[in-house]
Amino acid sequence: MHVLILTANADAPFMTQQVAALERRGVSFSTLSVAGEVSADTDRSPFDYLRTVPRVIREAGNGYDLVHAHYGLTAPMALAQVRKPVVLSLWGSDVHGPTAPVSKACAPFCDEVVVMSEEMRSVLGRDCEVIPDGVDLERFQPEPKSRARDAVGWPDDEYHVLFPYSPAREVKNYPRARRVVNAVRGLVDRPVELQTVYGVDHGVVSKYVNAADALLLTSDSEGSPNSVKEALACNVPVVALDVGDVAERLAGVDPSVVATSDEELIDGLIEVLERSERSNGREAVCEVSIERTADRMLDIYERVTGKTVSKRERAAVSQK
């Protein structure tokens, strides 16, 4: 099976991990990125998307079994070619943010639509598959906090609260995270540092996660935040607003807190820091391992194309 991926972010770790897992199952991929340059303060223009459409139409004729569009704004170009079935994966902001109308308009014309949470399915307002992005349980494993702190250079006599996003990403609401941590300072028995970590190689992210006492999520909206699942895989407590599938992912995880206000975030963070315990998160996150979610995506590919990937390929992966 050969799949053409359309994406506005070819380096997105959760997408590249999914691709690698599906390749291990016998699927091959080619990736076509939207034209134009993008940076922390520059988005692609509508013209960049429009001028990519002819490339998609030409490329789709080169022997692919399906087109997999990642992110709502790539859906129109995927549908512009009429030769191959289309699977659309929505990432979160394309359901909640200003691009939501594009996603909602295109979804009915796609052969399959995949969202990350039940909440996203409800907002989208149509039947679709709920498949959270999977977490790599081999890359994200618990390790001693002190060893991880030595690796990242954080002092061992302070509480470290991880905020794993750029403050420039407004939807992640860094000012709220800073406000919560400022309120906690002086109410616990040692200094508290808000550690903003972003732009580092994904291969070392687990070091920062394991070095933290807690992960703090203050986003205005989410789909299925990878940072939460990565913290769970490392048994690091999470204090988070009730967005996306956070409540589902944290069900039964202790210590961790799902909050709906600043006051609950503050109280929850104080409780987690004072307990100074690791969580049982790894038990809870196994159901959304990258291997399990890749199997579910492969089921969709097979359903859409009418093709079946060799059982031998699947068995070989399952035995690893």
Summarize the structure.
With 320 residues, the chain is α/β, with parallel strands linked by helices. Helix content is 40%, strand content 15%.
Tell me what the structure shows.
The chain has 320 residues and is of the alpha/beta class. It has helices at residues 13-23, 46-50, 53-59, 75-80, 93-96, 100-106, 118-124, 145-152, 174-184, 205-211, 226-233, 246-250, 262-275, 281-285, 290-305, 311-318; strands at residues 2-7, 28-33, 66-70, 86-89, 112-115, 129-130, 159-163, 192-196, 214-217, 238-241, 257-259. The chain has a six-stranded parallel β-sheet with strand order 2-1-3-4-5-6, with helices on both faces. Strands 8-7-9-10-11 form a five-stranded parallel β-sheet, sandwiched between helices. Helix 1 (13-23) crosses helix 15 and helix 8 (145-152) crosses helix 10 (205-211). The longest helix has 16 residues, at 290-305.
Summarize this structure as a short list of keywords or feature phrases.
320 residues, 6-stranded parallel β-sheet, 5-stranded parallel β-sheet, alpha/beta
Report the C-alpha radius of gyration, rounded. Answer: 20 Å
Largest sheet, spatial ordering of strands: 2-1-3-4-5-6
Bin the helical content.
40-55%
Number of helices: 16
What proportion of the residues form beta strands (DSSP E)?
Answer: 15-25%
Q: Structural class, judged by helices and strands?
A: alpha/beta
Secondary-structure element string: EHEHHEHEHHEHEHEHEHEHEHEHHHH
The biggest sheet amounts to: 6 strands, parallel
> Could you give the count of β-strands?
11
Any idea what the shape is? elongated
Cα(first) to Cα(last) distance is: 22 Å
Low-pLDDT residue spans:
none
Mean pLDDT, as a whole number?
93
